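Entry 14. Ran structure prediction on the chain below.
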Amino acid sequence: MGHSRWWDFVAPALTEVAHPFALDRRGHGDSDWVDPERYGWERDLLDAEEAMRRLSGLPWILAGHSQGGLLAVHLATRGNVPLRELILVDVPLEPQSPSLQRAGQAFRRIPQIRYPSLDAAVQRFQPFPPQHHVPPAVLDYVARHSFKPAGDGDQLVAKFHWKSYQRDLRHEANPLADHRARLGALAVPVLSVRGAESTILSREDQAELLHTLRDGCGIEIPHATHSLHVEQPDLVAAAIREFLSRDA
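Output, structure tokens:
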């Protein structure tokens, strides 16, 4: 449900080691909304691959947070774009765990809520999971980039198109069924960054994730939950810089 502006506090600190780009997936951020049946895992992968091909033919450093990290693992193992390193920011080891499945079921019941003003929308905004350490000014910044005019009046709606969760999944293969196998098949160096208080990636799960990887290292960011890239952006950026500079 996030968007590219969540990375605004990390990306500027990476310019010495990379040329950062952040992608808004279909129905997220400033990307257009489409018919619900034109959303989906395979379309997200194809969109990302096309963007990467157009931007550069050089090997990429690919980073993803949460579900974006799950997509990144899939992209890295498809082999359709050249990749140099992979960075997983609080990406679950078990994306189909009962707790995450319950969260997904709850998300599918959420309508496209309308708000009478930007201030009202910002007041209701919160990360997932709701327990977090995002500084108030940072939360306000991200929230104010998360809404747009509804298009038929003065009301606002989230930039995230909630109908993307409500498409018919009965004829789609489960894209996460082989997630562990894909982790083990990764052929590039991988950095796993975990929030020390994350409820999405436990310390034990991160250790198992690192054991699964061929070439992986991990770091834990203190005083951070799942939203670590907006809670502790300086520490997250420093961990990424150190990872990318290790052979320099």
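The longest helix spans residues 41-55. Will compare against last week's run tomorrow.
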